[in-house]
Design brief:
Strand content: under 5%
Largest sheet: none
Structural class: mainly alpha
Low-confidence stretches: none
Distance between the termini: 56 Å
Helix content: over 70%
Order of helices and strands: HHHHHHHH
Shape: globular
Length: 158
């Protein structure tokens, strides 16, 4: 894949990639950094892409790996009390974001790609390297857990 082809295919995907990264990392700056890193890693490995038809799922898989690397790095750090990165927005206050963070990683990945990344079931399966049936059952399970978390939150809150 030529440099110009690579970068022309990146532009339409940036918003989708950002949404996925934001769901994983929970902050705007971390999501932007993750997308930049994924684009860079993809550029370095662009010749390893076997089928150009799978470009978006290939790049999303790279992004997921970047996000997981960042989450592992965060776990190794000693927590320090700091000021919040930015003011809380109404979206951040939604119980949905908190419920999503409670999901196990394998279920959150499916929800991130299907509902925030706009991927089809087949594209999600390919991006995660899983059979479609597994993705479908994880999606059902994640939605059940989200419903449970959101119902519990509503009962507790006045």
């Amino acid at each position: 894949m030529k440099d110009a082809d690579y970068f022309s295919r990146i532009e339409p995907l940036k918003e989708q990639l950002y949404r996925v990264a934001y769901l994983y990392l929970g902050s705007e700056s971390a999501a932007v950094d993750a997308v930049d890193e994924a684009v860079y890693r993809g550029y370095l490995k662009r010749r390893s892409l076997r089928r150009e038809a799978y470009f978006s799922t290939w790049l999303t898989r790279i992004l997921i790996n970047v996000c997981l690397d960042e989450l592992r790095r965060r776990q190794r750090e000693t927590p320090v009390e700091t000021l919040p990165e930015r003011a809380e927005t109404p979206y951040d206050a939604l119980p949905l974001l908190e419920a999503l963070e409670r999901l196990p990683e394998d279920l959150r990945s499916v929800i991130a790609l299907r509902y925030f990344g706009g991927f089809t079931l087949a594209e999600t399966a390919q991006a995660l390297g899983l059979p479609e049936g597994t993705v479908s059952s994880r999606q059902r399970r994640a939605l059940q857990l989200l419903k449970l978390h959101l119902t519990d939150d509503e009962e507790v809150s006045p």
